Amino acid sequence: MRSESTHVDVLIIGAGLSGIGAAHHLQKAFPGRGYAILEARDAIGGTWDLFRYPGIRSDSDMHTLGYRFRPWTRAKAIADGPSILRYVRDTAAEAGIDRNIRFGHRVVGASWSGEQARWTVDTVHNGTPVRFTARFLYVCTGYYHYDAGHLPDFPGIERFRGRVVHPQHWPEDLDYAGKKVIVIGSGATAVTLVPAMTDRAAHVTMLQRSPTYILSLPAEDRIATALRRLLGARAAYPIARWKNVVVSTLLYQLSRRRPELVKSLIRKATVRQLPAGYDVDTHFKPRYQPWDQRLCLVPDGDLFAALRRGDASVVTGRIAEFTATGIRLESGEELEGDLVVTATGLRLLAFGGITLTVDGREVKLPETMAYKGMMLSGVPNFAFTIGYTNASWTLKADLVSEYVVRLLRHLGAHGYDTCVPVNDDPAVTERPLLDFDAGYVLRSVDEFPRAGSRAPWRLGMSYAHDLVNLRHGRIDDGNLRFSRLPDRALS
């Protein structure tokens, strides 16, 4: 039996970093309006609650990954996962946001009725269907598939007598003390795991098919720390935030315009941190250009320190098959291991796998186009958050929340019930929504909405550009269509 529906003005899906931030912006702007957050899991935190592998941490500094409205005050700017989780949960608790979260509600479908100008959202809670209705639907699910990560079909994996673990499903009882560990992968997860596991493992081998750009940064931002002492946390935070935005933007732009220079700088920094005579060309010379994929950050050079100590090693080659005692490479080399960690990537899932319907017609996401990287063509009263691939996720999440607040104010000020992006420019051609060469993106990008060849349909990756357009640009820009219900239009 379906329970009676609950109606709110805004329904947020997801209680992770984006969802809690969205709720904070809405609650502050519209203290009298009702909202709710639907969370499929039983805890706040999203990604930061899901992933429990050793050493989990941010790969962005917390002065930009943190919320604009709540300063990050801890010493470490490259923070560990538990600290980030506490930050998100404390943000929710201090603002009373946690009282508006419906835990254990997995959204399975959302249907829009133009006649009523409202969404009907169907969820499942403890096996029972529960229905919500809302004027505006705000999806903050991120784009990771929470149920399973990516696992290639490794020949002979069933013969391996040790244990195989994916980082997304790290067992609480996993004991790797004194064991030989092989970590397959070279992305952010792998370079985090390898140094973190050396404290207990006999030896950790990072087995990579090809190298990745790895950049060492201080875990503590000394400038931010000095500014906090001088100015206090609240005054120092925006300065440190903008300092890091500028530095990361300059690095990205330099990487795209002068890739050979950046490659040379990264290589020199890498050589300085590796043992003398190390085979840099084999293990630390990527085949792609900087920022074709995301740069991997290692705080205080912990990965390089583990290599210098001999607690860890890097092997580059393709896997031929698993054996009973480890992995054999196509080169013939065999790696012995007691535990294999498959840090082989993530799977993407658009909008948490929710089925969207508009006036009885199912929305096929690849046939839609993303408006300003946060709304969908032909889908009314709907917004979503997808962060930057070249900067901190929350920089974009905060801007999207601010835009949604401005949009809702515009609707209220003009008596509109509905807004929907419409692309009627035949000169706009389709592009991938995420124009990024990472494997986890390439495997799933065709299942996502499309981007366009020009603004406002192009998904930009410039915080400064978005800051101007989302925070200060016109709401009624000719690409949004606004309407009122008939009874209101006649009044």
UniProtKB/TrEMBL annotation:
Query: What Gene3D superfamilies does this protein's entry cite?
Result: FAD/NAD(P)-binding domain
SUPFAM superfamilies for this protein: FAD/NAD(P)-binding domain (SSF51905)
TM regions (residue ranges): none
Q: Does the keyword DNA damage apply?
A: no
Give GO terms: molecular function aspect only.
Answer: flavin adenine dinucleotide binding; N,N-dimethylaniline monooxygenase activity; NADP binding
Q: List the cofactors.
A: FAD
Record-stated family: Belongs to the FAD-binding monooxygenase family.
Superkingdom of origin: Bacteria
Originating organism: Amycolatopsis rhizosphaerae
Q: Which UniProt keywords are present, listed alphabetically?
A: FAD, Flavoprotein, Monooxygenase, NADP, Oxidoreductase
Name the chain's protein. Answer: NAD(P)/FAD-dependent oxidoreductase
